[in-house]
Amino acid sequence: RERNWKRAARNRRRRSPQASGGKRVREPISPLYLSYTPTVVTIAFQPALARARAALERGRHVEAIEVLTQALKSSGLKHEDQVGLRCTLAEAWLMGDDVAQAAAILGRPPDSPRVDLPPALLSTIWRLHGRIAFAKGDQSRAIALHGRALRHAEQAHDSEAIGLAHYELGLCYK
Asked: Strands, DSSP E only, in 42-143?
């Protein structure tokens, strides 16, 4: 036992910063730890997004549009953050019955095989494209787009997105 204790103390001294001449020796980081990157909105945009969503819940789409356009104008947005802000802005335009603005801000539907967005965000994109198609009077296209939204919502295990997709599908089938 005593010999093991002495060996452990000797190893600690060898690895200590004092033993290496005062410099810290940094061990390489395993690539497994670097492969995971969190998919959350950047901290700087969370307050703006929260204010806009709160305004939308209260029915104040004009206030939400102002907040979101300012947030989109700022530089340094990650692609995922920009898409999330665009989705919320499109929802605000749809609440204000401006389908053309909503379609313009949302852009084209994503190319499914090449998209690297999380399934919850893809569900929102497809659901909004379905709402725009339904507002333009294209019921069959809206049903297909809401079906895609439902599939991505189920992949994300997002009960709110699943419920919204079912609700929008129900409106299309009325």
From this structure: none
Task: Evaluate whether 69 touches 89 at the Cβ level (below 8 Å).
Answer: yes
Answer for the pair 89, 103: CB distance below 8 angstroms, yes or no. no
pLDDT band at 3 (very low <50, low <70, confident <90, very high): low
CA distances 18 to 13, 21, 139, Å, are 8, 5, 73
Task: Using alpha carbons only, give the angle 34, 152, 112 rounded to the nearest 5 degrees.
Answer: 75
Tens digits of per-residue pLDDT, 21-60? 555 555 444 444 444 444 454 556 788 888 998 999 999 9
DSSP string, 20-53: TTTPPPPPPPPHHHHS-------GGGHHHHHHHH
The set of residues, in sequence order, having a beta carbon less than 8 Å from that of 133 and lying 6+ positions away, is 141, 142, 145
Rounded distance, CA 17 to CA 30, Å? 22
From CA 148, how far away is CA 143, in angstroms rounded?
Answer: 9
- pTM equals 0.72
